[in-house]
Write a structure and sequence with these properties.
25% strand, three-stranded antiparallel beta sheet, Phenylalanyl-tRNA Synthetase, Chain B, domain 1, tRNA-binding, transferase, binds zinc ion, 14 helices
């Protein structure tokens, strides 16, 4: 079957499932991810002019590699699956794009030669590829993780195994996944004296995507480790607290409601997960010809305006907890700002927001409007 996205045309084998033809080696649900990748690569080339080589580490149909090559990158596509490698070659040829295609274990490819940009887009956890990527990438590591249940603590043991961290299932589960993932990646990079700075991160329909700019300096690795810490979360009133540092000093009872149903998660990444000025540049690189342009631009706007707070709230969940009706989000956030707090929407859902107010302060600032 034929697929067109971002100006390139791909032929991918189809398979009949429940009478619907589905593409093998091509995930249409990741088109937003790929459109943002291309826009990010364009913006990144302006930021770091020496960046020219791009490794599509799990190329499958070759779609990312073809799109990056069409954009002028010096592309290497890699896959362990022979059928995928053949397909990637055909799709490159179909679009008159030149790229090297490797039928090898990508960890071996990464250890053999350095790349400016490495893109890890595996099925499931990216951690088996993280060490080789950080040891051999010069500038930017792009990572997709699709194992959101382990990342957010819903599949607890699997999350602990993959990420060497304790994830907890909270009302901000997608962001728990973001912060567990970046924590594990930062610790992996630090082993090679590499510091990471997340310049764009989003959690969208069952995957987390983050773009980490690298600095090859031990002091930068130390600075990244300094962004790690723990989250203490009250299951009763949804109070949460961030505690910087690798040594936890957990709260036994909730300082807000006095309850003892406290969850402890960590080490998680507590630092910023985006660079707003860079995201504005990414947004400018999304042309209307991209199929997901409206969603991708809206996502950039929301993410760029998000406060640098390590967790978000869901207004509906708070109001349900308080036994009060929810009001319009804009009015709710205006009440918080009028009371002197910072407040922004968050990209995790239509009723999610970030603020520097704690759960008691949020209620005091907004409840008069919720009667
Ligand atoms: Zn509490």
């Amino acid at each position: 079957m034929r697929v067109t996205e971002g100006g390139v045309e791909l032929e991918v084998p189809g398979e009949q499932t429940d009478g619907i033809e589905e593409a093998v080696f091509y995930n249409p649900r990741q088109e937003l991810n790929r459109d943002l990748t291309i826009a990010t690569l364009r913006a990144y080339r302006e930021r770091e002019e020496r960046a020219t080589s791009y490794l599509d580490a799990m190329t499958a149909s070759g779609v990312r590699g073809v799109r990056a090559a069409a954009d002028g990158w010096d592309v290497t596509c890699c896959d362990v699956d022979e059928q995928a490698v053949d397909l990637a070659r055909e799709n490159l040829e179909r679009n008159d794009c030149e790229a090297r295609v490797e039928h090898r274990n990508v960890n071996a490819v990464m250890h053999d030669e350095p790349f400016d940009v490495i893109d890890l887009d595996p099925y499931g956890t990216p951690m088996p590829f993280a060490d080789a990527a950080f040891a051999n990438c010069r500038d930017l590591v792009c990572v997709t993780a699709t194992d959101t249940a382990p990342l957010c603590g819903a599949h607890f043991n699997s999350g602990v195994r993959s990420y060497s961290a304790v994830p907890r299932n909270t009302d901000y589960h997608a962001e728990m996944g973001v912060r567990v993932l970046i924590s594990a990646l930062a610790r992996s990079a630090a082993r090679f004296d590499v510091g990471v700075e997340p310049i764009l991160t989003h959690a969208t329909s069952h995957y987390v995507r983050t773009y980490l700019e690298l600095e090859h300096k031990a002091t930068s690795a130390d600075a990244a480790i300094d962004e790690l810490g723990h989250l203490y979360h009250c299951e009763d009133c949804l109070y949460r607290e961030a505690d910087p540092g690798l040594i936890a000093d957990p709260l036994e009872t909730c300082p807000h409601c006095g309850g003892n149903r406290m969850l402890i998660a960590g080490p998680v990444w507590l630092g910023p997960v985006q660079d707003s000025a860079f995201i504005a540049a990414v947004r400018d690189e999304i042309p209307y010809t991209f199929n997901t342009a409206p969603q991708a631009r809206e996502l950039c706007d929301t993410v760029a305006a998000e406060l640098d707070e390590p967790t978000h709230y869901d207004q509906h969940k708070l109001c349900r907890n308080w036994g009060l009706p929810a009001n319009a989000m804009d009015d709710f956030l205006a009440d918080l700002r009028d009371a002197g707090y910072e407040a922004s929407r968050a990209h995790y859902g239509g009723t999610t927001f970030k603020t520097d107010a704690n759960v008691g302060e949020i209620r005091a600032a907004t409840e008069d409007s919720l009667e």
